[in-house]
Write a structure and sequence with these properties.
The complex is a heterodimer of chains A (415) and B (76). Chain A is an alpha+beta fold. In chain A, 46% of the residues lie in helices and 7% in strands. In chain A, a hairpin with a 2-residue loop joins β6 and β7. The chains are: A alpha+beta (415), B alpha+beta (76).
């Protein structure tokens, strides 16, 4: 069914372009030109993915919000025709327990309520001093070490990983194991299989930790979650999956935002000056929203499947069609953001970006991410005003082929 | 304006409170651990005023637009 194309605009099967698509040489910060061409006339179009299927890719801001809030659109990856990210995800679908990531309301609602408590707006605000201290310590260590330094290894990756371990309640003695595996899971030269094995090992660790927290609760998120195991609401496996999910979803993403923003700001010195020279937390917060919009790191496309026919953007998505919601493109939708490809840290409506998604699955950790980014962007360039890249831009290794965009390493130096 | 919120739809994203703090708040979970499981109001939207003054109207509309659950309704 998903191979049957409708409408003149989509062309014959042989003309359906492949997804993912590459960014332009020399334009590491802009969406793939081929995607912009493909969706110039209508905010959605067919693409061909790894398994030969031809889901819809949706790039329009309004259309994305409509679909992500539509109960006819499902995240249930068990449904036939679901457009999995890659072969490994499809192969392991029966081994993944039910979670927020793969269930719809009302099943999703219960899982979500268990996970949101540590991430609410006010709880996260209370973590700001801890985030500041970790950031300051990591910067101190980097400054005391050799030049050039790798900003990813020194700051961008350890900060969010440490925060997630704190939040979850990973014991201090296990922090190194946790961090090493978290880093290995996302490393450059690691195959998809090795990555899944590494996260599998972390999941195993979390199963044991959940059992300990159920027996001896402490003041942390895993204990909160473990109590729902004790009450019989969820299984140990589902609880561990929540913890693994929070780790996977929350460390590389923030790390990518930190690394990528440093590159972007160094490429836009007038914007950097604005950020570096401000004392106003509102200006920093606004800058974070614009960087979330402009960098749009979630660029592989969130995966969904239609449970009924849906008319949208001048097309009809049929029951059973795969849907790819390419969030980055919506952040550059000129209908919403005038001069969308310009980085403007004072942009008034930056907060309307889709960087964290939309609908009931919108990122659980978004407020934590915001505070982490506000602290880092507000601290780094004040502490190190002469920070600069130690390699030319064209030598920087961007994560072109990963679901979340960023840089693998970032050699920096300073005076 | 007349604002209503649907707490059942709320996913505790907190964007309303971040956008219009004088109009929306979030239920504050207790810092010490609570054993009252099933308290759905943690982090969930709390409407501070259903008819904010004119100078807060734009912020209120912004908050309704960014709510991921479409749980905030504004009638003029």
């Amino acid at each position: 069914m998903s191979d049957a194309l409708t409408g003149a605009a989509t062309g014959s099967p042989a003309e359906v372009p492949e997804w993912p698509m590459p960014r332009a040489e020399g334009c590491p910060f802009d969406p793939p030109p081929a995607l912009r061409e493909l969706t110039a006339e209508k905010p959605l179009a067919r693409v061909r993915i790894w398994d030969g299927s031809t889901p819809w890719i949706v790039t329009g801001h309004a259309e994305q919000r409509s679909l992500l809030g539509d109960p006819r659109v499902s995240v249930d990856e068990r449904l036939p025709g679901f457009p999995h990210w890659y072969e490994g995800m499809a192969a392991a679908v029966d081994y993944r327990p039910r979670s927020v990531f793969n269930s719809d309301a009302p099943e999703h609602t219960g899982f979500r309520r268990i996970m949101t408590r540590p991430f609410t707006f006010k709880r996260v605000e209370a973590l700001r001093p801890t985030i500041q201290k970790i950031t300051d310590d990591l910067i101190d260590t980097m400054l005391a070490g050799p030049k050039p330094a790798d900003l990813v290894e020194a700051l961008a990756l350890p900060l969010p990983t440490l925060m997630i371990s704190e939040l979850l309640g990973v014991p201090y003695k296990d922090h190194d194991f946790f961090q090493e595996n978290a880093a290995r899971g996302i490393a450059h030269n690691v195959s998809a299989e090795e990555s899944m094995r590494t996260f599998g090992a972390l999941n195993e660790y979390l199963v044991r930790l959940v059992e300990r927290k159920a027996a001896e609760p402490a003041d942390d998120a895993l204990s909160d979650i473990a109590a729902f195991v004790t009450s019989g609401d969820i299984s140990v496996s589902e609880a561990a999956m929540m913890g693994t999910g929070l780790l996977i979803a929350g460390h590389e993403t923030s790390a990518n935002m930190i690394g990528l923003a440093v590159v972007a700001l160094l490429e836009h010195p007038d914007q950097l000056a604005l950020l570096r020279d401000t004392d106003d937390p509102k200006v920093v917060a606004g800058a974070v929203e614009e960087l979330l919009r402009y960098l749009g790191i979630i660029h592989g496309g969130q995966r969904r499947i239609a449970k009924e026919d849906i008319e949208i953007g001048g097309e009809v998505i049929r029951d059973g069609d795969g849907i790819i919601v390419e969030l980055f493109s919506a952040n550059r939708d000129a209908h919403v953001f005038p001069d969308p490809d310009a980085l403007d840290l004072r942009r008034e409506n930056a907060r309307h970006h889709n960087a964290f998604g939309f609908g009931i699955h919108q990122c659980v950790g978004q407020q934590l991410a915001r505070v982490e980014l506000q602290v880092v962007y507000g601290t780094l360039f004040r502490r190190i005003p002469t920070l600069r890249l130690a390699e030319p831009l064209d030598r920087i290794q961007f994560k072109h082929d990963r679901l979340a965009y960023g840089v693998y390493s970032l050699p920096v130096t300073w005076k | 304006m007349k604002i209503t919120v649907e707490q059942d739809k709320c996913v505790a994203a907190g964007q309303c409170a971040a956008t219009a703090p004088d109009v929306f708040d979030v239920g504050v979970p207790p810092l010490e651990r609570s054993r009252e499981w099933g308290r759905d109001e943690d982090g969930v939207v709390v409407l501070l005023t259903d008819d904010p003054p004119a100078e807060l109207a734009d912020d209120a509309r912004d908050a309704a637009a960014v709510c991921p659950a479409l749980a905030i309704h504004i009638a003029q």
